[in-house]
Amino acid sequence: MNTKIVALVAVIIIVSTAVGAALLLQPQDEEVSISVAYSEKVNYETLMVANANGYFQDEGADVEVKLVTGGIEAATALITGAVDLAAMGDAPAVQLISQSQGAKIVARLAGGEGIHRFIAWNDVQEPKDLEGKKLGIQQTSSTHGAFLQWAEANDVNVKNITFVYLNPRDIPLAMQSRQIDAMGGSEPWAVNTENLCGDDVHELGNSSGLGSTFPIVLVASERVLDDKPEAIKAVLKALDRGNGFIKSNWTEAMEICAGRTGLSIDDQSRCSGFQFYELGFNGTDVESMNMTARSMMDFGKISQMPEVMAHVDLSLMPRDGEA
After folding, report:
1. Is a pLDDT exceeding 80 seen at residue 118?
2. d(C-alpha 35, C-alpha 315), whole Å
3. Neighbours of 40 (CB within 10 A)
4. Deepest in the core among 74, 200, 254, 285, taking most CB within 10 A?
5. Which of 178, 129, 174, 133 is nearest to 155 (CA)?
6. Model-level pTM?
7. According to the model, what pLDDT value does residue 322 have?
8. Distance CA 237, CA 298 (A)
9. Are 191 and 271 a contacting pair, CB within 8 Å?
10. Span 43-57, mean pLDDT?
């Protein structure tokens, strides 16, 4: 073979190999793709608004949304590897980090003292009237943790209550048919119960005044923290913008959320108004989660108190001026 041809072939092979290696080293599309589990219900307005307004794409994240019924389902999706990120309330987060699976809280999205409500039939007039009755609630949900704290504060012996663990979507009908005497839920489950049952039910209490802000947090799997930090950063920037939009454009934000939760705009605005919308994580969040953890441990839902800050990574939070 002609030596010039041999040399040319050798050069082509070397160049092709170098180009192939360079392509392998370059960031691929999947490095910015990321999946997020959350519920289209009150408490998750930040995500609904960020998604609806295209903020994820604006910040360079190719987000695949996985819709679930509640935070406990989001936690399950994260544990099983079905998603990279999951939004949930304090109780599912406490249960998740108690399992020491490497998942970490990367931000608090929102919170509010009175976001959990307890609706009862009219013959249940006082908190202690719940003893001997049936309470419908989603097991190990944030509302479950809130109810345990509320019951303790009101001297209610939860051992004398029959807990009926239900999908929250089924709770209003269970109340209407008197399969349960009371329910605990965040929104829209509580307001849906009131709307369906009318004057036969009333609010027995809510989670305000317990000293907790019941934070809604975003949790990342250990794998995605290692493999996709830039994607997490982009998601957090988008969520920060989502919170900013909610605070600056309340009516429009409520219209977006009502279109997803199924609530009227008035009900959406009233329910969302119990919350604050701010990206962060601070000592109040830690103490709120500790309060929930203590209640869950007393009730036998976790075996020991988790060290919350050992399961928090705030290094990917947007710095001032980045959002």
Report:
1. yes
2. 20
3. 19
4. 74
5. 129
6. 0.86
7. 55
8. 37
9. yes
10. 98
